[in-house]
Amino acid sequence: MNLSIGDKVSLSVALSYLKTTDPMPMLRPPDLVSLDEVGEVIGLRPLDEVEVRFRRGTFLISINKLRFAKEAS
Question: With a cut of 70, which residues of the chain have pLDDT below it?
Fold first, then answer.
């Protein structure tokens, strides 16, 4: 999967935790982001990880746990 900054994504699987993108990262509970919530890619990191901004925070997530979000019609 090739992602670019600005792409709309959502989680493809439930995560056991979320890792913040703060200078001092913290682990957060997974219920902050639901599977159907749409987020925006705001940064690309090495090792196939991306920074995704969701409604309740910005988290570092592996590309293989994301999917492109379906556009609302």
Answer: 71-73
